[in-house]
Specification:
The complex is a heterodimer. Chain A is mainly α. Chain A is built from 15 helices and no strands. Chain A has one domain. The radius of gyration of chain A is 24 Å and the shape is globular. By secondary structure, chain B is mainly α. Chain B contains six helices and no strands. Chain B folds into two domains: about 80 residues, Four Helix Bundle (Hemerythrin (Met), subunit A); about 45 residues, no CATH class. In chain B, helix 1 packs antiparallel against helix 2 and helix 2 runs antiparallel to helix 3. Helices cover about 70% and strands about 0% of the residues of chain B. Classes of the chains: A mainly alpha, B mainly alpha. At the A-B interface, helix 5 and helix 6 of A face helix 2 and helix 3 of B.
């Protein structure tokens, strides 16, 4: 066992040797090691988070045809550090009538609920916190704590906008948790396990994104809803309720919410990679060839994982900065009347086909799974089209808006 | 004392202490949050017992759903049920006595189970508890009937809730 094959274990053994060499009892040394490991993991996640601030601002600038941060350091790379210094030295205000203890716990809990997810995030086959056999349910549980943090922030701020944001968050989270949980069952069925490592390894031959593209789509939508990002950012809708649940938070307390949201988005990009794109592995069997053995080095795997997670994160940003916020009744109707039934259909389809096709040769299995998803998707689109046509025939057509001067507008002239 | 015992004692203190706070604080929202802390402590106890599934489900169901709905309901009553104002039922001693009676009854009951003082055997290595639980829930010689009956009950409750919540059409 060398450093390059199993770095965490190598360092762990070395530290255990060092600590027991100082005549510490083994039990105490183990506890110390756990504490060191947890600290390193949190520090790694939060350091990555600082980089994500820069990534997010640069990407949104590209989407909006701007340059983004470009003054401090090369390409504005030092900008997040300046932001942190600014936030730390800002005045820390606790509003009058706020529930002080809950008000101060909420931002910590919000960031904690995200960092908890990192415990099960496998960066490589040998670099991970813990491999829980209930990994997928753990994701849902950590999300529940995040909801709680937002409710606490909204209630304790003693502000009606904050409270409205919290109300909206609860209706959002409780609704979109359902398609999320149903969809998490699909990788479970395909991999026969809820362990995140097991799901990653089950995809060494074929990505689940190809076996069930509809599940991926529903997962992305419900993940964005769970993140509370646009188009589901009703909990902080700037144009309606100012900043929603974090309206009263200043300085670094706001910083915790902001950092938590960015890291949450990246983490869900990571889960997208793990559940549907093979995580740190998944090169369609390529990594088993001798010539590509270097793909199995943990540091290469970690690089692959972070790249895949960044692509997932980019998709989440892409949606956020392209799609406008939707109305709350539309959001709930979309969930209950569209996402939940579709998720149930996809789940039943996957469960049945997985049993029927499992004995067939591999390519037929993949073809059957992929084809069934395409059929379901086609039927869904047809149902939606029929529904849309019916709705349009019910409402009388609105008169065509005319350009004020009576001439055709710029766009029409071009056609 | 092993590390596990220390964690158990700390968690037990958390569960009992926050449970006590639930019934003694006057602010309803604080009571709900103490309830969350107490339920979270129970999840830690499950985790110590290596019941991963139960621990996670405890958080998902009790904190993610039930406690959040509690808080949601309490938030809608904002200033009405705060510290000020008269308690509707100021009687404290009778519930405390009843609680003690139930506790002592449970202790007697548990102590009467044969072999309760023995340390449980360690789980065999490589046993997937989640898989075992899942198989037990759907196998005919285990719990499939109670499981299905509970499911039907839940469905009935769901239909009933929808019926009650739907406005009457005239």
């Amino acid at each position: 066992m060398t450093f390059w094959n199993n770095p965490i274990n190598f360092i762990g053994n070395w530290l255990t040797g060092l600590l027991t060499g100082w005549h510490l009892p083994v039990a105490l040394a183990t506890i110390l090691l756990y504490i060191i490991g947890i600290t390193v993991l949190i520090v790694f996640a939060m350091t990555l988070d600082i980089g994500l601030v820069w990534v997010e601002r640069k990407v949104v600038a590209r989407f909006q045809d701007r340059l983004g941060p470009n003054r401090i350091g090369p390409f504005g790379l030092i900008q997040p550090v300046a932001d942190i210094i600014k936030m730390v030295i800002k005045e820390d205000i606790t509003p009058a009538g706020a529930d002080k203890i809950i008000y101060n716990i909420a931002p910590v809990l919000a960031a904690t609920s995200v960092i908890l997810l990192w415990a099960i995030l496998p960066l490589a086959s040998t670099i991970y916190g813990v491999d829980l056999n209930v990994g997928l349910l753990y994701i849902v549980a950590a999300g529940a704590l995040g909801t709680l943090a937002i409710i606490m922030a909204g209630w304790s701020s003693n502000n009606k906008y904050a409270l409205l944001g919290a109300f909206r968050m609860v209706s959002n989270m409780i609704s979109y948790e359902i398609p999320m949980v149903i969809i998490l069952l699909i990788p479970t069925i395909l991999a026969n396990t809820m362990s995140v490592q097991g799901i990653t390894q089950a995809q060494s031959g074929m990505w689940f994104a190809i076996l069930s593209p509809l599940a991926l789509l529903i997962f992305v939508i419900s993940a964005i809803a769970e993140l509370g990002r646009s188009p589901f950012d009703l909990n902080e809708a700037e144009s309606e309720i100012v900043a929603g649940f974090h309206i009263e938070y200043t300085g670094m307390k706001f910083g915790w919410f902001y950092a938590g949201e960015l890291l949450h988005a990246f983490t869900f990009g990571g889960f997208m990679a793990i559940l549907f794109f093979g995580g740190y592995g998944g090169f369609f069997g390529l990594e088993k060839l001798a010539a590509f053995g270097w793909l199995n080095i943990p540091f290469v795997q970690a690089l692959v994982f972070i790249t895949k997670a960044m692509i997932g994160y980019w998709v989440i940003m892409w949606v956020k900065y392209s799609v406008p916020r939707i109305r709350i009744d539309h959001m709930l109707a979309f969930n209950w009347k569209f996402l939940v039934p579709l998720a149930l259909v996809v789940l039943v389809n996957t469960a049945v086909l997985n049993k029927v096709l499992i004995d067939l040769p591999g390519w037929l299995y993949v073809l059957g799974m992929f084809g069934s998803n395409i059929v379901i998707g086609f039927i869904t689109v047809e149902i939606l089209r029929a529904h849309g046509r019916k709705q349009r025939s019910l409402t009388p057509p609105s008169p065509q808006p005319l350009h004020p001067s009576g001439h055709m507008s710029q766009g029409e002239r071009g056609v | 004392m092993t590390a596990e015992q220390i964690i158990f004692i700390l968690t037990g203190a958390l569960v009992l202490g926050s449970g006590l706070m639930v019934v003694t604080v006057r602010n309803l929202l604080h009571a709900a949050l103490w309830l969350v802390a107490s339920l979270f402590g129970v999840a830690i106890l499950y985790a110590i017992l290596q019941a991963n599934f139960l621990a996670v489900v405890q958080v998902v169901v009790y904190i993610g759903a039930i406690a959040v709905l509690f808080i949601f309901a309490v938030m809608l009553t904002r200033r009405e049920l705060m510290e000020k104002g008269r308690q509707t039922r100021p009687n404290r001693w009778l519930p405390a006595l009843l609680g003690l009676l139930i506790l002592s009854g449970l202790v007697v009951l548990i102590l009467s189970v044969p072999g309760v003082e023995n340390t449980a055997a360690a789980l065999p290595a490589g046993l997937d508890t989640v898989r075992a639980l899942g198989t037990a829930l759907v196998s005919p010689d285990a719990y499939v009937v109670p499981f299905e009956v509970a499911s039907v009950l839940m469905l009935a409750a769901l239909v009933g809730a929808v019926y009650v919540a739907t406005a009457e059409k005239k």
